[in-house]
Amino acid sequence: MACRLPVEWFALDAGGLPTLGLRQFMIRFVPVLIFFLAALQEQVPAKPQPNVLLIMADDLGYSDLGCYGGEIKTPYLDNLARGGLRYTHFYNTARCWPTRAALLTGYYAQQVGRDKLPGSKRRGSRPSWAPLVTVDLKRAGYRCYHAGKWHLDGMPMKNGFDRSYYLKDQGRFFSPQVHWKDDVRLPPVKRGSGYYGTTAVADAAVNHLREHAETHADKPFFHYLAFAAPHFPLHAPPEDIARCRERYAGGWDQIRAERWNRIKKLGIAKGELPAVERGIGPPYHFPDHLKLLGPGEVNRPLPWNKLTPEQQVFQQDKMAIHAAMIERMDQELGRVFHQLRRMKAWENTLILFLSDNGASAEIMVRADGHDPEAPAGSAATYLCLGPGWSTACNTPFRRHKTWVHEGGCASPLIVHWPRGIKETGTLRHTPAHVIDIAPTLLGLAGLESRRQVPSPGRTLSSTFTGDGKALHAELWWLHEGHRALRQGDWKLVAAEGDPWELYNLAEDRTETRNLATRHPERVKALEKRWESMADSFREGLKTSR
Asked: Whose CA is closest to 455, among 478, 477, 472, 480?
């Protein structure tokens, strides 16, 4: 039966004004109607929250990917770049664990006790006011998943993740002895079982996404996919290595020159290619390990034509394995991307790809040791990239992992989100840092910060539409005595024990012209700011734990 409202409620008096009945209706029901409409609006967000796939490679060089000038075949990541954005001035912390802490909290690692400050003896656990971003995303209804490397304090399931495959054993790509599923330790993997770490990590990601589509399709997801590749030991399937081997017969000087030419054509960097620092070797020296590795190993980036034939073959094999590890990672990412498409999540998934630091000059032997008679790249070997090839992989920059010159702390960053980013195949030159990832995700999830200590990170969202206002007044680095500060285009940087160097990155991105003696007052001002930030981090930890 139709609902009839009293006619007198809508009557007008002789002057054309509402009668008492109509006024009573408006007083009684209009506020109720306004409340109902407001509540309805809150329940229907203007834009659906994006899913997030955050992918981190380990020890990847700045120009290793094809879309950043490399010769390594990475078709899936190259396609991602063609459909999204590439950042040319994106930074990490120059080392594994500090980058991961900064990435998932939005703070500098030293702020939260995950890397040492001057005067401190060791890193520790995060304070209670610095949870991982997953804890906040849960408030917004996200399901959170992890696969791969961790290198953080605590365990994944106790830090906001709903599912996790944690591969802790980084020394055995074919037979890890320490790994967990949902924080429950799994049995060791035997050699010869067909296991390969990069494939296993991608398998876990695909399974997580498949489960999400089947049981939680009504919720957004955050998936943190942290590969161990191409971190040492250099391990890869033999068929992958064979496809790459001949590519590196010309040596590291040739590869570096070819990459530089492609980088300039792509518009990623300009300036001068720095002279190779022939005297800079691994950050840590293990003479017994060098002896074990044999006469083919070289711990300095010598001119390729000065190497013996035996050394050239040995070094060629190492770079072929490094490239094979990256190409396998790319192929496995193709499977993950395919799963996103199958579950119809591709259009509204924000994908971010980056590296935890630059390529590594380290040379050492760990885990099960090194058998010089075994095929290079097999489970019985333990090889590292070394300074010759890491110099080429970090083209066009100087230095390596652990240093905070550009070669150690500059990272590729690919951002892809069809529903949220309209420009495709475009470069972004705005300086940004891993501390910006967590604030970006929280902002896109519609969350306001509840942090006791404000994050120094800034959302990248404004850069999705173009380069504009700077995100940061300055960016700060410290690791193992290497230190730097970037303020605008000026970068103050020093290796441990060395005096400050000063570069204008707008004119000299590759750090070839040290201007410290020409601008001593600027050096002093930047040094003072570096020290004040270090002091503030130290005081923050003292007063707020």
From this structure: 472
Number of residues that make up the chain: 545
Q: Helix-strand-coil percent breakdown of the chain, rounded to 5?
A: 40, 15, 50
What separation in angstroms does the CA of 374 have from each of 321, 364, 370, 383?
14, 17, 8, 11
164-184 as b/e: b if 16+ CB within 10 A: bbbbebbbbbbbbeebbeeee
Across 168-253, the runs of DSSP E, i.e. the strands, are: 179-181, 184-185, 221-226
Q: Is residue 24 part of a domain?
A: no
Q: CA 274, 279, 280 angle in degrees (round to 5)?
A: 75
For residue 502, is it within any domain? Answer: no
Strands 163-167 and 179-181, bridge-based pairing: antiparallel
- CA 476/CA 479 separation, integer angstroms: 11
pLDDT digits (tens, 9 = 90+) for 376-389: 999 999 999 999 99
Output the DSSP codes for 466-507.
---S-S-S-EEEEETTEEEEEETTEEEEE-TTSPPEEEETTT
The amino acid present at 414, given as its one-letter code, is I
From the list 260, 303, 514, 522, the residue with the least C-alpha distance to 405 is 514
State the residue range of the domain holding 150. 51-474
**Do the strands 349-355 and 51-57 form a parallel or antiparallel pair, or are they unpaired?**
parallel
Distances in Å between the Cα of 140 and the Cα atoms of 96, 165, 258, 478 are 29, 23, 47, 34
CA distances from 338 to 82, 83, 351 (A): 17, 15, 13
Q: What is the DSSP string of 421-450?
A: ----SEEE---EEGGGHHHHHHHHTTPPP-
CB within 8 A of 411, min separation 6: which ones?
60, 62, 90, 91, 92, 354, 355, 356, 357, 358, 434
Structure tokens at 485: 């500060």
Q: What is the pLDDT of residue 448?
A: 85
420-462 pLDDT, tens per residue? 999 999 999 999 999 999 999 999 999 987 888 999 999 999 9
- Residue reference for tokens 């200590």: 453
Tell whether the torsion through CA atoms of 313, 315, 319 and 322 is positive or negative.
Answer: positive
- Total domains in the chain come to 1
Q: Is 244 helix (H, G, I), strand (E, B) or coil?
A: helix
Contact 118, 532 (CB under 8 A): no
CA distance 480 to 496: 7
Residue 305 lies in a domain: yes
pLDDT over 90, % of the chain: 88
What CATH number is given to the structural domain containing 89?
Answer: 3.40.720.10
On whether residue 490 sits in a domain, the answer given is no
The model's pTM is: 0.91
